[in-house]
């Protein structure tokens, strides 16, 4: 295993020697990973390489059999996704988990709805729709999402790229430590994919570290600072777009080349 970078900073999120098995099937075989402040770390690998299992262990969807996780240098133990969310790790999965019938603002606050102040909120459980819409509009503006200024539009009326933008904006609004994006451009056209890539760059500019899982090599090489390559349940290498080409990355991923 090769790592082209020598870091002295404390990772925002780190995994050490993670092991996860499913009966006789090995999902992760001693995988380590480091995500540093303000960087985009891409994770690539063939199907079955362990990318999804790794992300699930990082975000509380799976509990590793062995290994350690740390956040800002302190050990953490996520037993469920809610634990990771409360620690500041937000994940946007391919399925997006948006509610089509609800509007943009309601989706951004899905599961975190704000209540009206005073007795209206505490006793009658009335939602503070005005504040949620105001905050949602401000978050979209800060991320430069100009096509979604009407936060009262139902999600079902939006394009695939706009829905992805809402999910990313929601993650950015609440992901105080880390934002994880699972194949965010997989079902999008060229124009909408470019908009999502710009969103990733803006998150980095805000100092929010991003983990990007993607099969799209041009996208990975456009936005990633470092690239973690999974192969057969292990970390095969950690490279950068400056040190290796796309051809090199694919060769390492398939085992044709050793980094």
UniProtKB/TrEMBL annotation:
Pfam families membership: ABC_tran
Chain coiled-coil ranges: none
Residue ranges crossing the lipid bilayer per the database entry: none
Keywords: ATP-binding, Nucleotide-binding
One term of GO molecular function: ATP binding
InterPro entries: AAA+_ATPase, ABC_carbohydrate_import_ATPase, ABC_transporter-like_ATP-bd, ABC_transporter-like_CS, P-loop_NTPase
Residues annotated as domain ABC transporter: 13-257
SUPFAM superfamilies: P-loop containing nucleoside triphosphate hydrolases
PROSITE patterns noted in UniProt: ABC_TRANSPORTER_1, ABC_TRANSPORTER_2
Gene3D superfamilies: P-loop containing nucleotide triphosphate hydrolases
Database matches in SMART domains: AAA
Record-given protein name: ATP-binding cassette domain-containing protein
Organism, scientific name: Microbacterium candidum
